[in-house]
Design a protein that fits this description.
440 residues, alpha+beta, Creatine Amidinohydrolase, Chain A, domain 1, 2 domains, 6-stranded mixed beta sheet, 3-stranded antiparallel beta sheet, 17% strand, elongated, binds glycine, binds manganese (II) ion
Length: 440
């Protein structure tokens, strides 16, 4: 878990970068109706949680570096025992101060009376427009109020700055405890994938396998970091297939893209394996190409290499492999140049990973691919997807979708694969599936 001390350290660091005379306003996400009286499970906004460790909805953090009467203010729901009987415990303003280390806390219903006063004394406001449209309107209203008072001598903040540049750069570099949390999330994701392999049999349904993943996530107190993708046969060629409702056929592959979230940190792991436990010759041939592409890409995850190096490496291996198998025709170098592989490999090799599964952080700096540095975590996830009916491609390849995805930490030297516990060689997968689930 991330400690309260670390949350405090993050706030201090951000305030140092903001400087005196500025204020940051960071709302959390709103609760969202699923249907009538039922809400979607609430998940705090990542930026807000990163700075507060506070998991309740209806809250706004305010940072005012150098403010005499407290630099960290938390607006949150008040304690209300009658309400809490229905909807669960609340920290209340007292808890915000005592437990979450706010210098001061106010009921969120009072924010309209308090915040304009705080804005008046600042010349720079750090606030990200667009992420919370309803709250945007309120911020604009408060600033207009102050403008109207300008004739009466009130000062108006003259600069609005998106907080993302500072905050998202901080989030890109993971601390030791963040890496620990992410390793734990990845380990639990791997347990889910292993359990899925052990349970999988022809004629089972995709949702039964989803249940196996959930079993491992929930028993570790975690939730899925994103809707699990459990796609058998040609469903594996749909990148974000989440219906998970088909019966799995003997002779098909099953692609599972599922990650656990722990303390608001995601893992993101994909494995592809045969429903019946044995790869066919065609499946094995393609699988080995993707696996080799992934190995080549992971090798590039080193400090000093640029963000795109793993992608370049995987494209090279995938294209050569597709040519060798007769799926692409021509010279690999020319095919890479005209991006012929994109017909079968239409996504990129990875993304930053952290509190958000597609995590924040710039991929380019000054127009150039960013250099990898220790502490960054990214996914490496090459794949090949041969849609059924692909013209000019032999029928035996149709409907095969393969992706292999791991979570990789950039270190001083060797790449550190956080999700290495999930089997991925043909031999390991076939051995695990032949053994089945160990007796409890
Ligand atoms: N699970 C989404 C992705 O792999 O990017
Ligand atoms: Mn991914
Ligand atoms: Mn994924």
């Amino acid at each position: 878990m991330i400690t309260l001390k670390e949350f405090a350290r993050r706030r201090k660091q951000l305030m140092r970068m903001m400087g005196k005379g500025s204020i940051a306003i960071i709302p959390t996400s709103a609760e969202c109706i699923r249907n009538r009286d039922v809400e979607f499970p609430f998940r705090a906004d990542s930026d807000f949680y990163y700075l507060t460790g506070f998991r309740e909805p209806d809250a706004v953090a305010v940072l005012a570096p150098g403010r005499k009467h407290g630099e960290y203010l938390l607006f949150c729901r008040e304690s209300e025992p009658a309400m809490e009987t229905w909807t669960g415990r609340r920290a209340g303003t007292q808890g915000a101060v005592d437990t979450f280390c706010a210098d001061d806390a106010f009921p969120v219903s009072d924010i309209g009376e308090i915040l304009p006063g705080l804005l008046e004394s600042c010349d720079r406001v750090y606030y990200t427009m667009g992420a919370h449209p309803d709250f945007d309107k309120r911020v604009i209203d408060w600033v207009s109020q102050i403008r109207q008072g300008a004739r009466a001598g009130l000062r108006t903040p003259d600069r609005f700055i998106s907080i993302e540049h500072l905050l998202h750069d901080m989030r890109l570099y993971k601390s030791r405890s963040e890496v620990r949390v992410m390793r734990t999330a990845a380990r639990v994701a791997c347990r889910g994938h292993l359990r899925a392999m052990q349970a999988c049999r022809p004629e089972m349904t995709e949702y039964e396998i989803e249940a196996e993943l959930l079993h491992e996530f929930r028993r570790a107190g975690m939730v899925p970091a994103y809707p699990s993708i459990v796609g058998s046969g040609e469903n594996g060629c749909i990148l974000h297939y989440t219906e998970n409702r088909d019966r799995m056929r003997d002779g098909d592959l099953l692609l599972i893209d599922a990650g656990a979230e722990y303390d608001c940190y995601a893992s993101d792991v994909t494995r592809t394996f045969p429903v019946n436990g044995r790869f066919s010759l065609a499946q094995k041939a393609l699988y080995e190409v993707v696996l080799a592409a992934q190995a080549a890409a992971i090798k590039q995850v080193r400090p000093g290499n640029h963000w795109n190096a793993p992608h370049v490496a995987s494209v090279k291996v995938l294209t050569r492999g597709l040519v060798k198998l007769g799926i692409l025709k021509g010279k690999p170098a020319a095919l890479i140049k005209k991006e012929a592989y994109r017909r079968f490999y239409m996504h990129r090799t990875g993304h930053w990973l952290g509190m958000d599964v597609h995590d924040v952080g710039d991929y380019k700096v000054g127009g150039e691919w960013r250099e990898l540095e220790p502490g960054m975590v990214l996914t490496v996830e090459p794949g090949i997807y041969i849609a059924p009916g692909s013209r000019g491609v032999a029928k035996k390849w149709w409907g095969i979708g393969i992706r292999i995805e791991d979570d990789v930490l950039v270190t001083k030297d060797e790449p550190d694969v956080l999700s290495k516990a999930a089997p991925k060689t043909v031999a390991d997968i076939e051995a695990v599936m032949a053994a089945g689930r160990p007796a409890a």
